Amino acid sequence: MEPTAAGASITLKDVAAASGVSLSTASRALDDRGTASRSAAAEHVREVAERLGYRRNSFASSLRRGETRTLGVLVPRLSDTVMALMFEELERAASSRGYFAMVATSGDDPDDEQRAAETLLDRNVDGLILATARLDDELPRRLRKRGVAHALVLRTDGVSPSSLGDDEVGGYLAVRHLIDLGHRDIAVVTGPSFTSSAVGRLAGARRAFAEAGIDAPAKWLLAAGYGIENGYTAGETILGGHAANRPTAVFAANDNIALGVIAAAHRFGVAIGEDLALVGYNDIPLSARLSTPLSSVHVPLAQIAGTAIDLVFNPDMGPRIRKAMPTLIPRASSGPPRQFD
User: Fold this and answer.
1) Tens of pLDDT along 125-148?
2) What global pTM score does this model have?
3) Which domains does the chain possess?
4) What Cα–Cα distance (Å) separates residue 178 from each residue in 18, 67, 181, 271, 276?
5) Name one GO molecular function term (predicted).
6) How many CB atoms lie within 10 A of CB 276?
7) Antiparallel, parallel or unpaired: β 249-252 and 221-223
């Protein structure tokens, strides 16, 4: 039997007959939902299927089981490096479990988030993973009410299954590092106050301040967005005054904010790592490649992704909110306070 160009006319029955095995044996050998069998019979079936040009219709077989083997992933934007990296890890973790991940973006508007979620659900995804959840977000509550399998990733609303880094520990590690270097005049630029990540990182920073007996001025505790432009604006505010009134160190609640602070520092002639110590968060690949490599808090995205997918289908297996431990990666951007004669 000659295969067609696309293998459209080759059926599972044809593969079984050509392999000299039963239909059920051929089906098991070609089932891609789990770890492939390495038995001689299974290898033979797969060789025959490839030679004949057989292509298994996974979508149709999944529909017969009442599932599509797809996961919907909702992120604010893929132009954000962390969100893009998070989706890549989710895609890998989904694939290793026999699922296909599709992504939709929503920005930061709750109505747009709801519409994007419905678009994914209209495609009959088996579950949703949300990297968009706000502390005041109605979407997770609606999903719980409708019984939609879902998990939150990198953020939590405190109720729905969630997989994230321990943001409070991460914020503590960043500021404790600066304090241990000798800094006491430390500014903190957090993310949006509607996100659990920003709230947690600020709480960790405050814990480090309290532990060291430092009362950080309110003018040096700034809430911003998570974009580079937000960091630049915050950097202008912090560094724009007289040099004697500037902090000697800054903790930026993500690496994009830190990049913005670096740009503002350059404008004002402030040398990162010498005049100003700087610590970011998330340890994106660019952090280690800057002219002055950026100290940053590393978050294990692969671990968080795998846990999130497992939570979608097994939300009651262990804690519903699971936090991965971050680690501080010190680099040249965080040095001790500069000593002046």
Assistant:
1) 999 999 987 788 889 999 999 999
2) 0.80
3) 12-56 (no CATH), 70-165+301-324 (3.40.50.2300), 167-299 (3.40.50.2300)
4) 69, 50, 5, 16, 11
5) DNA-binding transcription factor activity
6) 28
7) unpaired
